[in-house]
Specification:
heterodimer; A: alpha/beta; Rossmann fold; 2 domains; 6-stranded mixed beta sheet; 4-stranded antiparallel beta sheet; 12 strands; about 20% strand; disordered N terminus; B: alpha/beta; 8-stranded mixed beta sheet; 13 helices
């Protein structure tokens, strides 16, 4: 259990990025001339976490749970409805002008879709070098081309391909271009929004290895957003599970995957097929009924209660606090949180 | 033993009595495009029996979906052409049947569901109408009778409040519910074979579990043969009886599911299995397969996997290994399959 080796553990470095009660509600309006405000989609609703230096925080959840909106909030591509996010102690939503530009250098993003996130009419050199046009102080004009070639080399692309266009590369190679662009300004935090989900298994492994080695080399911190639980476990030091705009459980990868305490996490883990036919039938199968409710009209109290087998009247009336409950060793938002270890196959 | 052709993967026109339920035999499909001829399927043979689940595993561009399209006779033509091979349903070659007879078998005896249920359903008709169409077209049922049976089917695939929702349009359903509607249409006429092409790829993992459970249930009830096309090694391990692994338009390995995961007999299968993140390997590099799959317009000579294979030798660059039996019931298209199998290579 002790992290005696050099691997970055959750207790490691100083806190780099910290979110407190972060929320983003998108207003819903009727069409027509007189647009009326009819409610809001609570895409992210009260999310708190911390990210330490050199650490990877995995964020898992199904579509519509707000993971990508969270990424946009942390990049300040969206303004929050409430709450704050502090980078090295400074609330990023208070910054303006120069300070904001300096912040943007430090937090970069890698997107899911390597096809639509690269401009097809720009060469690879222009794409990877574009951050320097916006932040010219990072790299003097004269040495930019050399720096771009260095970056291509770092991510495993041939530096001589600097004049090629995105369509001349495969999906995995395009994702490397996106990563090189993310690295250009020497950021401290990289937000990876589903960085490997569009890739084939064999190529996915290549990109995962690249992300891990870049972290070691440059001391990067990652927020790694994905829906694939095994991918998240592989790369993350700590994991946050999201459901309908809220974090329902956080813990180290071991706590989440070996001793899940929130029913949703348990259902999620139980639903993941294990690539080993020898374990068929060795774990409890939890099949959730129905689909997640709409974030425009979330259930009262606990948001998971409509699909939960443990739900009682209390769950409808009272929103569960996000705390560690007796018998569990990490935070969950469930009145009846209890560790369950029969939904995963444990390996020795 | 290791040089004989696998009888299960390349059968020679068996007698009608003991022929498999559905069998693909030496199938070749190519797409003639402006950029040259794309060899999508290059001599694929597999079969599925009643009540059995065959998983066809492969990455994008491996030809797994095109093979299924050829079985259904829905390859886009031009540019696609089936240039060789046979698809036999209970011993009868579908490729040489007149279109009208083939149409009767398609839908009635062999049905297919697709990855993207939203684009596979017609947006301007109610879902109940679309399910009922199966009965009106194939059985000549009356409208009200067909509708009644559509509601029954929606019940059977566990769509809540089927009676109220029969008039709803596809966009009013969630992704998982749409996939259930697709499945309802596919099983409407009690097909003997169901081909499921990445049925859960677009779905969330909890919904995926629901759909896989439904397919399992339906198969148990009806005893249909299931061909599950997927790239997901986890889904395969959960449901398949046998696996055919495809690479660059060919089957490179075929085996019962329990054995292929423990001891793969082809370096590509082994590479795939090792690329998947595993708990016990956390903190280590994943052993990715180097490089990329070949372009189908330019498949390398010799073994199509040799440029990415850590075990390749001169022989592999020159000579394409046939799919041969390595063990009863399993076959591999590797010159060194015996060594790969026992772990010495």
């Amino acid at each position: 259990m002790e992290h005696a080796d050099a691997s970055p553990s959750s207790s490691g470095g100083p806190i780099l990025l910290e979110a407190r009660d972060l929320a983003k509600h998108f207003p819903l309006r009727t069409g027509g001339v007189f647009r009326r405000h009819t409610g809001s989609v609570q895409a992210v609703d009260g999310v708190s976490f911390e990210l330490r230096q050199g650490e990877t925080l995995g964020v898992v959840g199904e579509s519509g749970c707000g993971k990508s909106t969270l990424a946009k909030l942390l990049m300040r591509l969206e303004e929050p409805t409430r709450g704050e996010a502090r980078f090295k102690g400074q609330n990023i939503y208070d910054l303006s002008g120069k300070a904001m530009r300096a912040l943007r250098r430090n937090i970069q993003i890698v997107f899911q879709d390597p096809y639509s996130s690269l401009d097809p009419r720009m060469t690879v050199g222009d794409i990877v070098g574009e951050p320097f046009d916006i932040h010219p102080e990072v790299e003097p004009r004269g040495s930019r081309r050399r720096r771009v070639q260095e970056l291509l080399d770092v991510v495993g692309l041939n530096p001589e391909h600097i004049n090629r266009y995105p369509h001349q590369f495969s999906g995995g190679q395009r994702q490397r271009i996106g990563i090189a662009r993310g690295l250009a300004l020497r950021p401290e935090v990289i937000i990876c929004d589903e960085p490997v989900s569009a890739l084939d298994v064999s190529v996915q492994a290549q990109v995962m290895n690249l992300l891990a080695s870049l972290q070691d080399e440059f001391g990067l911190s990652y927020i790694f957003i994905a829906h694939d639980l095994s991918v998240v476990r592989h790369i993350s030091d700590r994991v946050a599970v999201m459901y309908l705009g809220k974090i329902v459980e956080t813990g180290t990868d071991e706590q989440i995957y070996e001793r899940p305490a929130h029913p949703y996490t348990q259902a999620l883990l139980s639903a993941v097929p294990v690539p080993d036919p020898a374990v068929r039938g060795q774990r409890q199968e939890i099949i959730l009924a129905g689909d997640p409710p709409s974030p425009a009209d979330p259930p009262s109290g606990c948001r998971f209660r409509t699909r939960c087998w443990k739900a009682t009247d209390t769950c409808a009336e009272e929103e569960p606090l996000f705390v560690s409950r007796p018998g569990t060793d990490h935070d969950t938002a469930c009145h009846y949180a209890a560790v369950r270890d029969d939904v995963v196959v444990h390996r020795d | 033993m290791s040089t004989t052709t696998d009888p299960s993967s390349a059968p020679h026109a068996p007698a009608a009595g003991d022929s498999p339920l559905l069998e693909v035999d030496g199938l070749h499909v190519e797409f003639r495009t402006r950029d040259g001829v794309s060899h999508a399927v290059n001599g694929v043979s597999y079969h599925v029996e009643q009540g059995e689940t065959l998983a066809v595993l492969g990455e994008s561009g491996s030809g797994k979906s095109v093979t299924a399209q050829a079985i259904m006779g829905i390859v886009d033509s031009p540019p696609g052409f089936v240039t060789n091979g046979a698809v036999r349903f209970r011993g009868k070659d579908l490729l040489t049947l007149p279109e009208r007879e083939r149409q009767a078998i398609r839908g009635q005896s062999i049905a297919m569901i697709f990855q993207d249920a939203l684009s596979a359903l017609n947006p301007v008709f109610p879902v109940g109408w679309q399910i009922a169409e199966m009965f009106r077209v194939h059985h000549g049922s009356s409208r009200s009778d067909a509708r009644k049976r559509a509601i029954e089917l929606m019940d059977r695939v566990h769509i809540p409040a089927a009676r109220d929702r029969v008039r709803d349009y596809p966009h009013q359903f969630s992704g998982g519910m749409r996939q259930r509607i697709m499945i309802a249409m596919a099983i409407a006429l009690d097909p003997a074979v169901l081909i499921a092409d990445e049925p859960t790829t677009a779905l969330d993992v909890t919904v995926q579990a629901q759909i896989m459970k439904l397919l399992r249930e339906l198969q148990q009830d009806s005893g249909m043969g299931l061909i599950l096309i997927t790239h997901d090694l986890g889904v395969v391990a959960d449901v398949a009886d046998r696996i055919a692994v495809m690479y660059a338009g060919r089957i490179v390995e075929q085996a019962p599911v329990d054995r292929i995961y423990a001891t793969p007999a082809h370096p590509y299968t082994r590479g795939l299995l090792r690329s998947v993140p595993r708990v016990d390997l956390k903190g280590q590099d994943l052993s990715a397969i180097a490089g990329l799959p070949p372009a189908l317009t330019n498949i390398p000579p010799g073994c199509e996997f040799h440029p990415r294979c850590p075990a390749a030798e001169q022989l592999c660059r020159e000579d394409r290994p046939p799919l041969i039996t390595v063990n009863p019931g399993r076959s591999s298209a590797c010159h060194f399959s015996a060594e790969v199998l026992n772990g010495t290579r």
